[in-house]
Amino acid sequence: MLHLVSLVINEVMYDPLGAESSAGLYNEAVEIYNEDTLNEVCLDGWRLGDTYDLDPLEVFPDSTILEVCPGCVLSTCVPPGGFAVVLDRDYTNPSSPVPTPYTFPSGTVVMSVSDASIGNGLSQGDSLFLVSAEGDTVDAVGGFPETGDGRSAERRSPLINEFLPSRSPSGHTLGYGNSVSCPYSFSVNLESTLRLASEYEISFTVKNTGIEAARFVGRVLWNGERYSDYDTLLPPDSTARISLRLPLNLVGTNEVSLSLDTTDCDTSDNFAVAHFVAGRPSLVINEINYKGVEWVEIHNAGDWDIILVGARIKDASSFSDSIRAHIRAGGFLVITGDSTFTQHFPTVEPLIASMPRLNDTYDVVAIVEGSEMLDSLTYRSSWGGGENISLERISPFLPSTDSSNWGTCRDPMGGTPGAPNSLSTSVPEEGIKLPAEIFRTGEAIPLAFAYPFKVDHLSAIIYDDFGRMVRRYEFAPRSTVGQVLLDTEGLWRGLYFLHVVVEGEGRSVKRRIRFALK
After folding, report:
1. Ramachandran assignment for 2, one of left (phi > 0), alpha (psi -120 to 50 degrees), beta (any other)
2. Are 179 and 173 in contact (CB under 8 A)?
3. Residue 58: predicted pLDDT
4. pLDDT at 79
5. Phi and psi based region of residue 210 (left: phi greater than 0; alpha: psi -120 to 50; beta: remaining)
6. For the chain, percent of residues with pLDDT exceeding 70
7. Is 105 found in the same domain as 247?
8. Are residues 208 and 152 in the same domain?
9. Is the pLDDT of residue 174 over 70?
């Protein structure tokens, strides 16, 4: 049975520096710590060993050890709050290839065992036992982590039966407080990343690896910009999970990082970073006619053909029939459950399938394939559309969930199924492009760009026909291809000039574009 005494096995040097057949035979060591800060504990008649061999503890037999450690104490009594180091009997043997390699602080008690080795010789997989004179097991530990040659396994805390490789530059802390027994210490790890329809889900974990409850203060940066802050109290050995959903609206390499502003014993693990590449979006919900003859258009905005097998359109409560289709790069697929669709658009060949009935005021529209959500949004009638007038997506590069990325179709037919949207602008081969020259007041104008270098900064300034600056926009795309939206809310009808400056990778491009609001 375990006996409630204040002694613990605190550190184990099972792999001393040197080969097992040489120095390893002389320099194995076990540290015992007395938690009691008031009373010493004497170990006469006590035993230490492994599963195969328990050896009586005794005073270290060679007093010449005091020549290399004059402050050491030859005794079997461990002082209050003090340490005793149990050494091989041959630790001071002059024939050792690495004689007396350890430096102990003054006051360290040195002991040995009555046998030639501690237990049956120490190893990583050993279980060690400290047994009282009455035969009670006072402490039992093992196995141990892999430490490497000449590095000890240290106990995190007397209250935590877990050993870690020593962090000390000397490879051990025999006779000292353990290097892994840090009151306040945190480690940050990137746990997972998952690509969703128009977002990346990223999870970080922060673990309190210290031995006391402590508060961590952390900050998340997304593409170098401050995104969120955290201030959380964590008990020892507990973990906090930080999950983020970041939109895929920046084409190119994105970076998200979590760093701690908390000072602890080891700051090397207080930072984690994730990179994800958002390419041209592949499959997006591109146009919805939710009132009248209902239909949904899907657009393959990517560079490769897509084959759907078992995909479904869903709303808040139901699914369509299974969809099997081949959508070419840049192509469209129109899905409807209404056979009168071709009366409105006789030149368009839709896929007829049982469809959920869409609500006239708001609803969820999503496309799923198996357990994967390819794209989704929750529209409202205030976004645009009407009786047999479709709700069009402005840009596949901007989030599906952004209401400013949707608007009422301008085409006289009331929709553009199977064709580019009336509100959209294609990405130029190189340069900057607006979809038209005339826009309605208050609408968001999509500005598309494409360059052979990564655009780190894009500024756009609108001047009226008197040359007065009326609106300024700043964007950080960090991509070679993409689109941004220019809000014109509050601008009057009239002629305007758009001055755009694109910068990145040491290059700068300027462009001036004329447009009108009506």
Report:
1. beta
2. yes
3. 96
4. 95
5. beta
6. 93
7. no
8. no
9. yes
Phi/psi at 420 (5° precision): -60, 145
Tell me: do 153 and 16 sit in the same domain.
Answer: yes
List 446's β-bridge partners, or say none: 485
Tell me which amino acid residue 189 is: N
User: Which residue did the predictor score with more confidence, 182 or 277?
Assistant: 182
Q: What is the dihedral of CA 297, 298, 304, 309, to 10 degrees?
A: -120
As given in the structure block, the two tokens for residue 265 are 């014993």
Give the structural domain span for 224.
186-278
Q: Whole-angstrom Cα distance, residue 458 to residue 501?
A: 6
395 domain-assigned: yes
* 35 C-beta neighbours (distance < 10 Å), count: 14
**Alpha carbons within 13 A on the beta-carbon side of 45:** 6
Query: pTM score, two decimals?
Result: 0.46
Supply 41's token pair. 């504990």
Contact assessment for residue 262 and residue 187, using Cβ atoms and an 8 Å cutoff: no
Report residue 170 as tokens: 């000397």
User: Does 289 lie in the same domain as 270?
Assistant: no
Q: Amino acid identity, residue 510? A: K
Is residue 112 a contact partner of residue 68, using CB atoms and an 8 Å limit?
no
Say if residue 452 is in the same domain as residue 393. Answer: no
**Sequential DSSP letters for 176-226:** S--TT--SS-EEEEEEEEEE-SSEEEEEEEEEE-SSS-EEEEEEEEETTEE
pLDDT of residue 196: 59
Task: For residues 471 and 485, give the distance between their C-alpha atoms in angstroms, rounded to a whole number.
Answer: 13
448 and 318 in a single domain? The answer is no
Count the domains in the chain: 4
